[in-house]
Amino acid sequence: MNRTALVVFAWLWVGLPLAYGLVELIRKVTALFTG
Fold first, then answer.
1. What are phi and psi of 32, to 5 degrees?
2. Which of 20, 13, 15, 10 is nearest to 2 (CA)?
3. Predicted confidence pLDDT, tens digits, the chain (35 residues)
4. Sequence-distant (≥ 6) Cβ neighbours of residue 1 within 8 angstroms
């Protein structure tokens, strides 16, 4: 595995759960404020 692929994999490994968490947070906050 070359360095570029390793960097991309590392970003996805961190970024995907982070993005999922942010989406869930936004959904909960909008549900809280809209009722």
1. -65, -45
2. 10
3. 799 999 999 999 999 999 999 999 999 999 999 97
4. 9
